[in-house]
Specification:
Length: about 425
């Protein structure tokens, strides 16, 4: 049996469709983000500007965060030494969970090794524990939520993206006595649009459903203390489970949920993804907590982040580039074709020392392939103008479409909405 050939053929299919992912070999340099060193195939290094990082606020290099990690590693060593239940629950991890519970004004919080694992573990466990539960899941939910829904083995209904009327219709088709869970995101990572959280909470109350929100692309960045969109809109107490990551706005690594004690205790006690894996290292927990506490008490990073995101959108739109309407810090630039978006990304890196990873199907629907630009507070005005110059030059050389892509996006969402779960994509 030629196993090797089977794997190679599978990967060749992706290559043929221009969806084969290539890692950029980057070396982040303390204090210089968003600049980094890039190493090409011939091992030559050169300085580039990263424009697609999810270290949205640059907290991964913040002095307080780096110091917390260094000091804790020096005083406590590196590994946690065990699973949560077998010697791995270290002091900084306990403090981190308290800090997260306080951030979201919930009774308790539970930390996982990643945001992906938090979603998979929490959604599947919560749904499994509710007898005959039915899950209502937004059509554009992240792969980790889809995985949680699948893993639960419970019945699911997919509502059209952010469509409250459709959610109501689906809820009203189900026996009122059945336990229900509505799972959705606050900021959708690829389009940068925001969920109608209040309306979803109203429906949840009316139909007796639990609410589960993924705030991965919002925590640290929105709300007076960085508690996310639900905090920004004064709705945290109306959400049953708030899920977040420590790896994006907070700049470190790990994921979590915050909820009432009964939910946290149940997930802690039943989720294999939580029980049978080594706990996060103490130094990492201390770093994440330093980041959360800094952002709770300081709004400067958030303000600057919003300013640079607005400026980037305005400047790129003014240059006639197809910037998609986005309510948030995520700036999608639609190319609409896998080959073209790869060519644009390569040209930006090779000719302009700008790194923006292409985003392809299945992460986004076919025909909406894009460059997903993520300005941070550390991108200067000058860098934004350099970006504009580079993009205009690439758009001209490759003769890429310039018309606004919003109409195409709306159409593609509708047609991609066959209301089955999309296949998992990174
Ligand atoms: C919406 C959403 N949820 C969850 C995750 C997973 O978070 P993490 O990177 O911490 O695993 C991501 C990651 O990219 C995401 O976009």
């Amino acid at each position: 049996m030629d196993y090797r050939g089977i794997f190679e053929d599978a990967v060749d299919t992706l290559r043929a469709e221009k969806r084969y992912r290539v890692f950029a070999d980057l070396e982040r340099i303390a204090g210089k983000f968003p600049k980094a060193m890039y190493r090409d195939d011939a091992d030559n290094a050169r300085e580039i500007t990263i424009w697609c990082s999810n270290d949205y606020l640059g907290m991964g290099q913040h002095e307080k965060v780096v110091t917390a990690m260094q000091q804790t590693a020096a005083s406590m060593g590196v590994g946690a030494g065990g699973t949560r239940n077998i010697s791995g629950t270290n002091r900084p991890l306990v403090e981190l969970e308290r800090s997260l519970a306080d951030l979201h004004r919930k009774e308790a919080a539970l930390v996982f090794t990643s945001g992906f694992v938090s979603n998979e573990a929490a959604i599947s466990t919560i749904a499994r524990l509710l007898p005959d539960c039915i899950i209502f899941s937004d059509q554009l939910n992240h792969a980790s939520m889809i995985q949680g829904v699948r893993q639960s083995g419970m019945e699911k209904k997919i509502f059209r993206h952010n469509d409250v009327a459709h959610l109501r219709e689906l809820l009203s088709q189900v026996d009122r006595k059945r336990p229900k869970l509505i799972a959705f995101e606050s900021v959708y990572s690829m389009d940068g649009d925001v969920a109608p959280i209040k309306e979803i909470c109203d429906l949840a109350e009316e139909f007796g459903a639990l609410t589960y929100i993924d705030e991965v692309h919002a925590v640290g960045m929105y709300g007076p203390r960085g508690g996310g969109i639900a905090e920004h809109e004064g709705l945290m107490d109306r959400i049953d489970v708030i899920e977040g990551t420590l790896a994006k706005g907070f700049g470190v690594m790990g994921g979590y949920i915050a909820a009432n004690r009964s939910i946290i205790d149940a997930v802690r006690s039943y989720a294999p993804e939580f029980i049978f894996t080594t706990a996060l290292p103490p130094a990492l927990c201390a770093a994440a907590r330093a980041s959360i506490e800094h952002l709770k008490g300081n709004g400067e990073e958030r303000l600057m982040h919003q300013r640079q995101a607005r400026l980037t959108k305005a400047i790129l739109a003014d240059a006639g580039l197809p910037v998609m309407n986005s309510d948030t810090h995520i700036v999608p630039l639609i190319v609409g074709d896998a080959r073209a978006v790869k060519a644009a990304s390569d040209m930006l890196l090779d000719k302009h020392n700008i790194y923006i990873q292409p985003i392809n199907y299945p992460t986004v629907p076919k025909g909406t392939e894009r460059l997903r630009i993520t300005p941070t507070p550390l991108h200067s005005d000058e860098m934004i103008f350099e970006l504009r110059h580079a993009l205009v030059s690439v758009w001209t050389s490759l003769e890429l479409p310039r018309e606004r892509a919003d109409a195409a996006i709306t159409a593609s969402k509708l047609t991609s909405g066959d209301l089955t779960l999309p296949s998992l994509g990174g």
